[in-house]
# Entry
Amino acid sequence: MQNRFKTSATIRRMVIIAMFCAMSYVAMLLIHIKVGFLTLDVKDAIIALCGLYFGPLSALFIAVLVPFLELVTVSTTGYYGLIMNILGSVSFSLTASLIYKYKKTLLGAILGLASAGVVTVAVMLLANLFITPYYMGVTVGAVRGMIPTLLLPFNLLKAVCNVGIVLLLYKSMSRALRRAGFLPRSVKALPQGEQMPAQKPQNRKATLVISLVALLLIVAAMVLIFTVFEGKFEFGIK
# Structure
C-alpha cells in the first residue's frame, strides 16, 4: 500500500512538472518583447514557480528542456539563442528555488527572488561579453559599449518583471495546486464537524501588500521598457 502511494505521488509530480513545462513553452510563444537581438519573455517566471513548489531539480529540468524545444520549433537565433536561454532560465529559477529550499518563509522567497534577479543580470552580462561578439560579428569592445544603454537596463527590467510575476502568482497558484492534490495541505485534517479557521487578518494583509508590490513591479518594468527602448521593440507572437 505504501509503495502504491509513493508511485501515485511520483506520477502526480511528473504530471504537474510536465504541465509547468508546457506552460513555460506556451508563455515563450505568446508573450515576448524583442528589443534588437534581445527578447523579453516570462517563461523564467513560470520555471521559477515550479522550482519553488517542487524543488531546484524540477526548475533545472524545465530550464534546459524548454530552450531545446524552442530551438527545434520556432527559434531564429540558433545555438546562440539556446545557450543564452539556458543561462538565463537556469540562473533565475535555480537561484530562487535553491535559496527557498533552505529557507521556506516569505523572507526566504523574497531573498531568493531578489538574489535570482541580481545573479541573472550578472550572468547575462558576462554571457553577452563572451558570446555576442561571435553571434553578431562585432568586437568585445562594441558589446561592452552596449552595456549601459541596452544590455544592463534590458536584463534588469526583465528580471524585475519576472520577479513581479512570481510574487503575483505564487500564493494563488499554490492554493490551486493544493486543492488539486499536487501539493500537500498546509494544515492537518480537522475532526469531523469542525471548520477550518479563517485566514488571519495580518496574513490577508500581507498577501494583499505583496500582490500590490508585484503589480507595481510588473507595470513599472513594462512602462520603463516602452519608454527607454521607444521605437526599438517589437511585441508579438512567435
User: Anything to note?
Assistant: The radius of gyration is 20 Å.
